[in-house]
Amino acid sequence: xxxxxxxxxxxxxxxxxxxxxxxxxxxxxxxxxxxxxxxxxxxxxxxxxxxxxxxxxxxxxxxxxxxxxxxxxxxxxxxxxxxxxxxxxxxxxxxxxxxxxxxxxxxxxxxxxxxxxxxxxxxxxxxxxxxxxxxxxxxxxxxxxxxxxxxxxxxxxxxxxxxxxxxxxxxxxxxxxxxxxxxxxxxxxxxxxxxxxxxxxxxxxxxxxxxxxxxxxxxxxxxxxxxxxxxxxxxxxxxxxxxxxxxxxxxxxxxxxxxxxxxxxxxxxxxxxxxxxxxxxxxxxxxxxxxxxxxxxxxxxxxxxxxxxxxxxxxxxxxxxxxxxxxxxxxxxxxxxxxxxxxxxxxxxxxxxxxxxxxxxxxxxxxxxxxxxxxxxxxxxxxxxxxxxxxxxxxxxxxxxxxxxxxxxxxxxxxxxxxxxxxxxxxxxxxxxxxxxxxxxxxxxxxxxxxxxxxxxxxxxxxxxxxxxxxxxxxxxxxxxxxxxxxxxxxxxxxxxxxxxxxxxxxxxxxxxxxxxxxxxxxxxxx
Length: 527
Ligand code: BG6
What we know:
It is globular and about 80 Å long. Strand 2 (25-29), helix 1 (34-49) and strand 3 (59-63) form a beta-alpha-beta unit. The strands form four sheets. Strands 1, 8, 9, 10, 13, 14, 15, 18, 19, 20 and 21 form an eleven-stranded mixed sheet that branches. It has helices at 34-49, 69-83, 91-98, 111-127, 146-155, 180-191, 209-219, 251-254, 259-276, 285-297, 442-446, 453-463, 472-490, 507-514, and strands spanning 3-6, 25-29, 59-63, 101-105, 135-139, 168-173, 199-202, 233-241, 299-301, 311-317, 319-321, 324-326, 344-351, 361-366, 373-380, 390-394, 397-401, 407-413, 417-426, 432-441, 497-500. It is of the alpha/beta class. Helix 1 (34-49) crosses helix 2, helix 6 runs antiparallel to helix 13 (472-490) and helix 10 (285-297) packs parallel to helix 13. The longest helix is centred in the last third of the chain and has 19 residues, at 472-490. The structure holds 6-O-phosphono-beta-D-glucopyranose. Residues 242, 262-263, 374 line the site of 6-O-phosphono-beta-D-glucopyranose.
């Protein structure tokens, strides 16, 4: 059993000082969609409520359907009440915010319509007293509409160039292609009309407070960084587990994607970059992205040979969870009953550089696992000699337990925490060893209510800070690394290994780690 220590925050939080309000015109294409209602407008409301967004900025929803400003405003009240990170939304406050919201009907392929859209933005900006305003265009639309939308903007003269280029920021969200070739094609299509600094590619994991804290923890403290390398670290595990299956009819999309494209190629590899990268010389967007790119370029399979030697793909099968029979993947809505799509992927890889050579990184992500949890666990080497032991009895089998490896765990979600496991002396007349955990919990130190990822990311776009966005060369390097596994999963030779819904994945995933005498951690979220 683990003892438990707590960290306390040494200053009161939040720090004094009021936020600086930023301004930019915000246009959201795909304004009738789920993302706009559930994430974007609630996040903008919270930013406005907290004083980060200037009072006068116009927010323009753009979609094909005919709708008045009033109708657009009315349909967003409920989602804001439900999803914005505020205690409550009074009628008076909503009335003030709603004045910021406008609706513009537009067909994304109608270039003349775009000219009128540009004039509408000019008018709204001049009414708001904004001259030479920065403009954010959020493409909350299907990926095949990224290029046509930008093309129409471009043809209508709405893409500034030269010194003014950075006044336009176009935001897109994954999928950025479905493989290396299509990702390159997308980069090339957008690159014909936009400069790299005008494109903000969202990976919402980078907007999570606890993900950003990995960098601060590593480079804002002096004592941990010297330990994070091949001399001291035995291996690293990154887990992005989800208990949900294909709720809300997601099976249709998911069956074209799978765990590798949906989560590993982006979220998991971004986490790996943050834990593996070198310190940048300055905390600036380009320096940080350069360091992340070096990690991706140094990524190698954990073993020589075909992808099946170092990766495992699985698919969940029906099972009972908490007394209820849940569907297997193939029984899910909109999933073909002979689908071979992977809902789980695990792999062993290495970062082939001076810091990490020889240290295995084990990655896993999947649907219908026992719990929703995201964590990075760094396991250190055991002491060179085992001087202390304890007798542990489990169902009458007694084991001698020696020094256990130290672990540093970043729990990204839920119950955001950083934990350090180490050994102590068990009280008594002998030298008996006992593992304990020192925990830092965000809610205990700072109270509840961490910012939502979209709040931080939207504010950064408005401010023109691209630190937390993925650059096209990072994206390409990530696709390149996963290509052998992707090719295997797409080939006729691939059959996903079955795992029971509610379990930690197929047996092959256990073997991947156990063949080296190691084991997956069972993530804990209960303390
Ligand atoms: C998305 C994936 O990018 O990330 C989803 O498309 C997944 O399938 C989600 O559920 C997980 O994000 P989070 O923030 O809930 O861990």
